[in-house]
Amino acid sequence: MAIERTLAIIKPDAVGRGQQGEILARIHKAGFRIVAIKSMRLTKEEAGGFYYVHRERSFYGELTDFMSSGKIFAMVLEAEGAIAKWRDTMGATDPKKAAPGTIRHNLGTSIGNNCVHGSDAPETAAFEIGYFFSGLELI
Q1: What is the rounded distance in angstroms from the CA atom of residue 39 to the CA atom of residue 75?
Q2: Were 1 and a residue from 60, 65, 81, 106 both cysteine, which residue would form a disulfide, CB within 3.0 to 4.6 Å?
Q3: Catalytic: which of 28, 54, 105, 117?
Q4: Is-catalytic flag, 28?
Q5: Which CATH class is domain 3-138?
Q6: What residues have CB less than 8 Å from 30, skipping those under 6 apart?
Q7: pLDDT of 32-51, one tens digit each?
């Protein structure tokens, strides 16, 4: 399996509850290398640009409001098969449907407040990583 990079975000709900340390520990335990990390607060416009692909969906406004409601941690994770591996580590979007032991199952409170984000494909990962990080930050 090839070494890949994926974008991971610790969302405002998790940061607000002080769960970033637990999530970072799970990232390390799962065998990821953190290539880059930054804490930031997105504006509604920045969140809108990031979630542009969802602009026509009914939840877009709620999503951009939520993602701009507090601090996030954006990260680039690297591992063999990083995209699928991170998605497995996160668990299903709905914490009630996520497998026991996953981040969303253990720490998420709802489908909207599910603690973390991860890229879903190589093309998505390339866009998402470039949205938050410059090439010099990824060395």
Answers
A1: 9
A2: 81
A3: 117
A4: no
A5: alpha beta
A6: 79, 85, 86, 89
A7: 999 999 999 999 999 999 99
